[in-house]
Design goal:
- The complex is a heterodimer.
- Chain A is of the alpha+beta class.
- Chain A is built from five helices and five strands, in the order ββαβββαααα.
- Chain A has two domains: about 80 residues, Beta-grasp domain (Ubiquitin-like (UB roll)), CATH 3.10.20; about 70 residues, [2Fe-2S]-binding domain (DNA polymerase, domain 1, Orthogonal Bundle).
- In chain A, a hairpin with a 2-residue loop joins strand 3 and strand 4.
- The longest helix of chain A has 15 residues.
- Chain A is globular, with a radius of gyration of 15 Å.
- Chain B is an alpha+beta fold.
- Chain B has three domains: about 45 residues, 2-Layer Sandwich (Uridine Diphospho-n-acetylenolpyruvylglucosamine Reductase, domain 2); about 110 residues, Uridine Diphospho-n-acetylenolpyruvylglucosamine Reductase, domain 3 (2-Layer Sandwich); about 100 residues, CO dehydrogenase flavoprotein, C-terminal domain (Enolase-like, domain 1), CATH 3.30.390.
- Chain B is built from eleven helices and twelve strands.
- In chain B, strands 4-5-8-6-7 form a five-stranded antiparallel β-sheet. A four-stranded antiparallel β-sheet of chain B has the order 9-10-11-12, with helices on both faces.
- The chains are: A alpha+beta, B alpha+beta.
- Chains A and B meet through strand 4 and helix 3 of A and helix 2 and helix 6 of B.
Chain lengths: ~160, ~270
């Protein structure tokens, strides 16, 4: 077993875990943060994307012990409970950027990371290139791309990062 | 995944001691090859030695006439580094083509080289640029470092600490991606160095990355895509799989080499 201490969505978390535990398992099964999904489980689909120290990573390909001492943000951490949605979440709702919704948490975490790296004015080409590691089997991406472009702009006028 | 013991050394020396003390221990940094392989139970190391928290192992700097990149520098760090973009823009471009954004936030140059996947991008850059792989024990020239599929000159208790790239006059990389995996079906890196030209091919060779000396000699006389017209490579010794036949890969190599020269000349 291995003792880990990390910050998840702003809250300190301590746990004693089997080193085999994947970060996504730890989030879902130990912390019950089930917004982060397991899709392909082979680091291709991006349903498991979370932010580790502010950068998008695939939590199905990260050991929880490797996050010891670091900071993790999941889809649940984007906006406080009961508060208005994060502008990127709101943009996905407004532009119908999801159908079944399974890929959506990963899409949104990837999109927020993209805005942090490349700013608020994103071309369609840039968004499509940057979505290389996120697969959606429903939408054909059209509305996801529109959602991200709108969400990126909306984030410029928001207090939520 | 089978059970293992996790170690987080603070220095390369501690990591080397852990490797020496624990048989079959494996190094992990980004984990983006090793963790999937362990999940599939294709590897079951009893000890994992995590290099990702060793300070100073991920630096990027110019030293003399070389660009020096630390072993745990991530693909995104290399792709976005102003130092790399200025010294060897083709290398920054190459790093930005690896995997996807989330993978580039974790995967490291040292991990990619130590793994020597026959479809990886970095081996082509190292071989074409004539890089030197520095370990905790010695310095290895790229020509002796890569030794076949998933095989390198590294010993079991040896750790890559940095990679030194002599800065070329010009360089270009062109990758023909597998449409599904985005790995290189074929990738060609061309480097015009002060005294010679080197051309390295990844994704195609049955023994992994290799040099095309016929192209190098032609390009040394005149560094222009035109000198490659009419030159070809034989399909013998190239991979043939469901993604492409050896003949197809052989066809792609001169096509991509010409494009890589154009890229090096700033024409594309």
């Amino acid at each position: 077993m291995a003792k880990i201490s990390l910050i998840v969505n702003g809250n300190p978390v301590n746990a004693n875990i089997d080193p085999r535990t994947l970060l996504v398992q730890f989030l879902r099964e130990n912390l019950r943060l089930t917004g982060t999904h397991v899709g392909c489980d082979t680091s291709q689909c991006g349903a498991c994307v979370v932010h580790l120290d502010g950068k998008a990573v695939k939590s199905c390909t990260t050991l929880a012990v490797m996050a010891d001492g670091h900071e993790v943000k999941t889809i649940e951490g984007l906006a406080p409970d009961g508060a208005p949605l994060h502008p990127m979440q709101e943009a996905f709702r407004e532009h119908h950027g999801l159908q079944c919704g399974f890929c959506t948490p990963g899409m949104i975490m990837t999109a927020v990371d993209l805005v942090h790296r490349k700013g608020h004015e994103l071309s369609e080409h840039t968004i499509r290139e940057e979505l290389e590691g996120n697969l959606c089997r429903c939408t054909g991406y059209q509305n996801i791309v529109q959602s991200i472009a709108a969400g990126a702009k909306a984030m410029a006028n928001s207090d939520l990062a | 995944m089978y059970e293992f013991k996790y170690h987080r050394p603070a220095t390369v020396r501690q990591a080397a001691n852990l490797l020496a003390k624990n048989e079959d221990a494996k190094l992990v940094a980004g984990g983006h090859t090793l963790i999937p392989v362990m999940k599939q139970r294709l590897a079951s190391p009893p000890h994992l030695v995590d290099l990702s928290h060793i300070e100073g192992l991920d630096g990027i700097e110019i030293k003399g006439r070389s660009l020096v990149i630390g072993a745990t520098a991530k693909h995104a760090d290399v792709a976005n580094s102003a130092t790399v973009q200025e010294a060897i823009p083709a290398l920054a471009y190459l790093a930005g083509l690896i995997g996807d954004p989330a993978v580039r936030h974790k995967g490291t140059i040292g991990g990619s080289l130590a793994n020597n996947d026959p479809t990886a991008d970095y081996p082509a850059a190292c071989l074409a640029l004539g890089a030197t792989v520095v370990t905790n024990k010695r310095k290895l020239k790229a020509d002796e470092f890569f030794q076949g599929l998933f095989t390198t000159a590294l010993e079991s208790d040896e750790i890559i600490t940095k990679v030194m790239f002599p800065i070329p006059k010009k360089a270009g990389y062109v990758k023909f991606r597998n449409q599904a995996s985005r790995y290189a079906l074929v990738g060609v890196f061309v480097a015009k160095r002060p005294s010679d030209v080197r051309v390295a091919v990844t994704g195609a060779g049955a023994d992994g990355v290799y040099r095309v000396t016929a192209f190098e000699e032609a390009l040394k006389k005149r560094f222009s895509p035109k000198v490659l017209d009419g030159l070809s490579v034989p399909p013998e010794g190239l991979n043939s799989d469901l993604h492409g036949s050896a003949e197809y890969r052989a066809h792609l190599i001169p096509v991509l080499a010409r494009r890589a020269v154009e890229a090096a000349l700033g024409k594309s």
